[in-house]
Amino acid sequence: MLIRCPCTVQAFACPDWQPSPGFDRFASSIAKLDIELSPKEAYACRRPEDPSTCRKGDQRLSRRITHKRPPKVKLTDLRGILQYIPRFRDKVFVISLDGAVVEGENIGNLLLDIALLRSLNIQPVILHGAALQIARSASEQGFQPSDTCGHGITDADTLQVAIQASHQVTHTLLQGLSGADLKAAVTNAVVAHPKGILKGVDHLFTGKVERVDHGLLETLIKEGIVPIIQPLGYDGEGRTFRVNSDAVALAVAKALKAAKLIFITAQDGLMFDGELIREMAVNNLDERLRQQRDLFDEESLSKALHAAEACRWHVPRAHIINGSIDEGLLAEVFSNEGIGTLIYANEYQQIRPAKKKDVATLFAMTRASVAKEELLRRTRASIEKHISDYYIFETDHHPIGCVALHRYEDHKSGELAFLYVNPSHENEGIGKKLIQFVEEKATKLQLEQLFLLSTQAYAYFQSQGGYLEGTVEHLPESRRALYEQSGRKSKILYKPLG
Question: What is the total count of domains within the chain?
Fold first, then answer.
């Protein structure tokens, strides 16, 4: 594979197969693409015919490249990946790995994915849990731990097992990161104090995060060292406390003003009433936590509570993903669809007016629907001429939908047109949001009626939008002539406003 740079001075070439594991992982995700990059993002790398010439650390990866991943997480769009890189450069990603994930078969690939993030100047900070290891170690020693997750009571024996189990998990991570050519350091950055006596019950050695030594973590990051943080906290007297890893991840994300808080678990994401939440604004999640908390399972509840608080504390995005999915972390970070659950601050989605520079995007986005005759064919010139009528629905600055409102002032009516939502975001209510947006816009413009023409989606507009079937009499004269010329015989729907 060759990625060309228009400025050869700023690109580097490696004629032998000696990329960093992170860049190798990136290359495997965009293989077979050949595209010009900006000087800042370009690298050149040619792969030899014989993969045996790769370094030991890359041989395992070259074998993994042949593994087929689920279609929903496959990364094939280089341009789609590259749009995220400038946005994430030098940003902190707090990545929390459940103990069960660290023991999973995919942990080596996860650490290589983290190496990729680091190679792109994203700053990962790793935390981990140890509940699985605590339960197993206690069982091997012949006693029942008083608590495994760091929420309940931690007695002296359980604390000692928790310390041992945490060191075991940390060693696994250090070993894997070393194999990925990443420098890492275990820290005592979490300052904790006793959780105390709650409802008359002494929680003994269970701790609560008091503060995070962000200066220590920032120094390590500046030196190119990945901090590793255990589910343990320390006080000024040298005492150790067991602290819940989700709470530690939240505290670290807040202290470092992280761009993302990523929980990597054994589940596909947040499960609510037995179903996966794909994405949700934090205010909607807060409402569910207030009114229907019992519909979250135990693991999802903890993640939901901490993800919601992170977003309220200005961490823009919180993700919950399944750590067993190959390249799942990459799919979540470098694709708009993701693979797990995204909780976002409320500015994440917006409907904005289209600009002239968006004409190509509108054309490309709706090409398939036009080909299937779901949408009327339009020329670039016609879209550009009436660009003020068009609106784009964005998710994380990525266009996934559009709509148009054409006004007929003499008829006091408007046409709802060009409604499209990317199939990957179907059943998320985006179409209904766009319809409501146009209706509110038309009402503010003092239009008395909306109409639309549809050949295939009329049932949706009738059932979901309350539109009524009409006749050509519901169309302005100028639009009536175009309707008859088109020969599409679309159904005419209308809706009175006000």
Answer: 3
